[in-house]
Specification:
It is a single chain. The chain is an alpha/beta fold. The protein is 43% helix and 12% strand. It folds into two domains: 218 residues, Rossmann fold, CATH 3.40.50.880; 108 residues, Arc Repressor Mutant, subunit A. It has 14 helices and eleven strands. A seven-stranded mixed beta sheet has the order 5-2-1-6-7-11-10, with helices on both faces. The longest helix has 21 residues. The two termini are 28 Å apart. The relative contact order is 0.09.
Length: 344
């Protein structure tokens, strides 16, 4: 790499921080884990450690990270990346400040009784316990999320709710903090979570410098809904209404009241509403509203239409109605959404 193409080093105003012991962060992974769930937080903690070392080279490292799996050695991620687990989780008994569990294909770790027992034992010893993405399933299976607030990847929220009804799921959150328990949404949200932990440990200035270095938001605006295709699961209805979700998507600027939709499938409005809820998991009104938001989102990303034109094409009736609906579901107004996500 040439001198001119090297990334600028992390910079921070010189100041001697209070001396603190090194925080040990353990990250549990497994075969077919999502590599970014692991590597994203590792990069955040490494960048924070490097930055603090530049401020005071004589201070102990801010973080020491260790990768754990069911056994020490190479672990192949779902992407094909092979990482080295330094130890088996059962070999590590204490000395951990923060323990994070990766997500991915969690079927094997969910069946690992030894892992669940170890997590329950460690939960009483660590300062912070958390998960990235579907790693929340592993914590929930160990009983560590019962009665607690948590989140996971948007695509797995309903499955998570059904499997663990005692967990208070926050489906749109990028990450959730409940006491010493932290859980994050899908994949890159592990970076948001790690930045929040760095901010808690080392302060806002340090976390902001790390975020700038990684070219990410320190506090990402909006929730994970703005990155999801809301209708992926619902549009897969295979019952009596299997054709209707697609018809709705093709006629968003028309009257999509319960009465109108019921007429399309030759049902009474009451029976239609009951069947639709059973087959899609949502009321007709909620499905239509999310369909319109999803369509408007795509137009704002890819088209040159004005906001009022987008609102009319997607059936909102007015730009103001679209603005209120976006705020309710995405926590961002259409103008800001377009500015943030529009294709170059």
């Amino acid at each position: 790499m040439s001198r001119s193409s090297r990334p600028a080093p992390l910079q921070l105003a010189p100041r001697r921080p209070a001396r603190q012991a090194t925080r040990r962060v353990a990250l549990v992974t497994f075969a077919q884990a999502q590599s970014l769930d692991l590597v994203g937080p590792l990069e955040v903690f490494a960048a924070a450690t490097h930055l603090m070392h530049r401020r005071d080279a004589s201070a102990p490292p801010s973080y020491e990270t260790i990768v754990l799996a069911d056994r020490a050695g190479p672990v192949r991620m779902s992407s094909g990346l092979v990482v080295q687990a330094e130890r088996a989780f059962g070999e590590l008994r204490g000395g951990i400040d923060t323990l994070l569990v990766s997500g991915g294909d969690v079927r094997a770790p969910l069946a690992d009784l030894a892992l669940r027992r170890w997590l329950r034992a460690m939960a009483r010893r660590v300062r912070r316990l958390g998960s990235v993405c579907s790693g929340a399933f592993i914590l929930a299976e160990a009983g560590l999320l019962d009665g607690r607030r948590a989140t996971t990847h948007w695509v797995a929220v309903e499955r998570f709710r059904e499997a663990y009804p005692r967990v208070q799921v926050e489906p749109d959150a990028i990450f959730v903090r409940d006491g010493n328990l932290v859980t994050s949404a899908g994949v890159t949200a592990g970076i948001d979570l790690a930045l929040a932990l760095v901010e808690e440990d080392l302060g806002h200035e340090v976390a902001l410098a790390v975020a700038r270095h990684l070219v990410v938001f320190l506090k990402r605006p909006g929730g994970q809904s703005q990155f999801s295709s809301h209708l992926a699961a619902q549009a897969a209805s295979g019952g009596a209404l299997r054709q209707l979700p697609q018809w709705i998507l093709d006629h968003l600027d028309e009257d999509l009241s319960v009465e109108s939709l019921a007429e399309q499938v030759a049902m009474s409005p009451r029976n239609f509403a009951r069947v639709f809820l059973r087959e899609t998991g949502q009321t007709p009104a909620k499905f239509v509203e999310l369909a319109r938001v999803d369509a408007a989102r795509r137009l704002l990303e890819d088209d040159g239409l004005g906001l009022e034109q987008v609102a009319a094409r997607c059936g909102f009736g007015s730009g103001e109605h679209m603005r209120r609906t976006f705020l309710r579901h995405l926590r961002v107004v259409p103008h800001d959404y377009r500015r943030r996500f529009r294709a170059a």
